[in-house]
Amino acid sequence: MIRRTTTAALATACAALLLTACGQTTTAAETDTSEKKASAGCEGVETSTGPVSLTDSFGNKVELDKPAERVAVLEWQQTEDLLTLCVDPVAVADGKGFRTWDTAEELPESATEVGTRGEPNLETLFGTNPDLIVVEAYTAEDEILKQLAKYDVPVLATKGADAKDPVANMITTFEMIAEATGREQQAEKVVGEFEDKLAASKKAVADSDAAGTEFVYFDGWIDGANVAIRPFGQGSLIGELGEEIGLKNAWKGEVDPAYGLGQTDIEGMTTLGDATFFHTGTVDPAGDINAELAKNDVWKSIPAVSEGRTHAFPEGIWTFGGPRSAEQVLDAYVSLLAK
Length: 339
Description:
By secondary structure, the protein is α/β, with parallel strands linked by helices. Helix content is 35%, strand content 15%. It contains 13 helices and 12 strands. A 5-stranded parallel sheet has the order 5-4-3-6-7. Strands 8, 9, 10, 11 and 12 form a 5-stranded mixed sheet that branches. About 10% of the residues have low confidence. This is Iron-siderophore ABC transporter substrate-binding protein.
């Protein structure tokens, strides 16, 4: 389930308006959903009403007569972003995987499943009658953009990642989706909360003995008889967030230009000196890499492991997510280090 990239390229790649009319009949499930949205800060969220005209990440114009309400989305960061903006998507790619890997927002069961993120079922997708499709792309020539261009539904293409400034790219993507759905005011609120969290986390680290700690965050998977390890290096979102609050990313190896992700094995991790290790706490259904690492004598000899400085983040923190996932990352760093 982990998104796998190499150092060269990717290897795999609240409803629109809360219903508050007097006399409306709602089911218990609908009431429960409304209560959850209210507690998540979605009560009274304002939506603009005028026409929308914006330019996506690849220079394509997106014109809408009014803000999009029936939004289909094909990647998890953008699914999270819609939910943070209090817009329930009508269609999603791999919602089951989202619920496992991204706990920053709760995806309603009402969203129609349209297949995998890499190969969505277009017949099912367009059967949900979306007025906007949000996708993640890496170039203007991505195959999914060519396929969707054959249909008469507006497409908002967001940039998958940018190692030059991953935090800015995350925010830009979020604000672009907010503009398309008329939720600019909600986006401003959320971005402000993220910035406050960032400042508070930086202070917490500075006030502790964790400032300047060298670290490496990693995930990985089992590749046949081997363990493939993916360090999040310079230009990764999770690495950048760590450095923003006063830590030092110790991974100096080659990384891909989009996600800032490296590639190594157990031997490669022995070169990291006294760096503290962090890793995902979500167990990949395809195989538990950490259980395999625990059996390896070389792994157990690495200082971070032998000295008990290897820490699992809480389960369900999506390392390629939006502002709410980023806040979870910051909380994890602070709770594990700044004690």
